[in-house]
C-alpha cells in the first residue's frame, strides 16, 4: 500500500509541477507583452493559457493530422493569435527572452505537426488572423497575408478577373504561410513553376523582432524564405506575388485504368512523355490498391489539367500519349476557377464560395513521404511496384509530372533545387481513421516498407525529398551543438547544393537559433549560439 501511495504522490507532484510551469510560462508572456507596450486589453484577446475555455478550440481548429490531436500529444503552454505586427514582434522578443520555443502556424497542414507540436517547452503563434488580400489589376500583383488559405486566395483572384490565376496547391484549406515558403506547387507547375518563383516581396519579423520588407532585409534572406522554409528564419507575415495569366477556357479530365485496361502500359508510356509534352499540360497519376470482383488490383487514375481547350488537348494526347485513351467525353471545359473546384473534389454544382471555407469536412490520421524519379521505371519494375502495392494494401502513390519550365529554372535560383532532370515527383500517401498506437504503427510501417521498396527507382546521393511533404523519417535535429551535422542529413535531401547557403543565411540572421524546429536550418557550429 505504501508503494502505491508513493507512486500516487510522485505523479501528483509531477502533474502539479507541469501545470505550474505552464501557468508560469503564460504569466511570463503576459508580463513580457506588457513590457513591450502591448495594451492589456489586447493581450487578453490574443494570448491563451490552457486554463482559458477557448484554448482547446483554438489549438485544435487548425490541426490537420489526427496523429497529433490525441490526449498524449504535447500541448503548448501559450497560444498567441496576433492581430497586428507589434503582437508578432512581442511574441518573438518574449520567446527569445524566456527561452521558450516558438512554433509558427498558418494553416496547420504540416504533415508531421512541426508547426504546433514539440517535445520541449513551447508556445504557438497562430497567424489565422492575418488574412488580408490586396489585389492590383494594374500590375497583376497581390499582397497576401500568411494566414490566408489557398481557397480564399483563388476566390479573391476570381472576383477580380477570370483571366488571372496563381500557381499553387490544389487543397483549398492549406495556409499560404508554410506553403509558399516551402516551395508551393500545383497543377500549373509545368507552365509557371512554383509559388516561390512568383514571390516578389515579403514582410518578415526577424529574430530581433524587427518588421522588414525586401528592401530592409538582406537579399540572401529574401532568397532563403522562397523555398527554404520560412520557419527557420522568422515569422513571415505577408507575401507579394505576381499573378499569372490563364486562358478563358481550361480543360480537366479524369481517366481510370483498371486491370483490364493495361494500367502498367499506360503508366510506362506516361513516364516517356510527360516531362517533354506541351507545357500547358499537367497530369497527376494516382496508384491505389482496390478490390474489383473480389480480387485486389491496382487502379491507375490519370487526372489532368490543360491550359487550353479540349480540341488542342486531344491532338496532343492522341499523338504523344495514345495509351491514355483520352476521348472527348472525358474532357470538361471550364473557366480556371472551375478547375480549382474540380481539383479540390467539389461537385459540378458547387459555387466558388465554397473555397472560402477554411476547415476540411473531415480530418484523418496521415503519413506522407516523397521521392523524385529521374529515369523511367522499367515495365518490369512497374509490375513489381503494382504487386507490392497490392501486398501492402493500404498505401497509395501519387505521381506529379515535372518538366516544362521547371527544367529551365536553375537549381540555385531559389532554395528549392528539384528542377531539371526530374520526370515526376512521388508522394507516398497513407490515410486512416482507426485510433490508437497500433493503427498508427501499422500504417506508418506500411508506407516505410513501400518507400524502401522503391529505392532502386528514385534519385540517389542524395535521395531527394520535398520540404512541404514534411517527413521526419529522413532526419531530425535536437538543435544542439551538433545540429549542423544532424541538419545536413535531411538538409541535403530537401535542398541539395543550396543547403550550405541556407546555413550561412541562418547563421547571419538568427545566430541564437530563435527559430528552430525538428527540421530547421542549423547555424554554423563555430558561429551559432544555442538558445
UniProtKB/TrEMBL annotation:
Pathway(s) where this gene product acts: Alkaloid biosynthesis
Entries under InterPro entries matching the protein: BBE, FAD-bd_PCMH, FAD-bd_PCMH-like_sf, FAD-bd_PCMH_sub1, FAD-bd_PCMH_sub2, Oxid_FAD_bind_N
Signal sequence annotation: 1-18
Keywords assigned by UniProt, alphabetized: Alkaloid metabolism, Disulfide bond, FAD, Flavoprotein, Glycoprotein, Oxidoreductase, Signal
EC numbers: 1.3.3.8
Gene3D superfamilies tied to this protein: 3.30.465.10, 3.40.462.20, Uridine Diphospho-n-acetylenolpyruvylglucosamine Reductase, domain 2 (3.30.43.10)
Co-factor(s): FAD
Domain of life: Eukaryota
Domain FAD-binding PCMH-type: 72-246
Top EC group: oxidoreductase
Molecular function as annotated in GO: FAD binding; tetrahydroberberine oxidase activity
Family membership: Belongs to the oxygen-dependent FAD-linked oxidoreductase family.
Name listed for the protein in its UniProt record: Tetrahydroberberine oxidase
Organism (species): Handroanthus impetiginosus
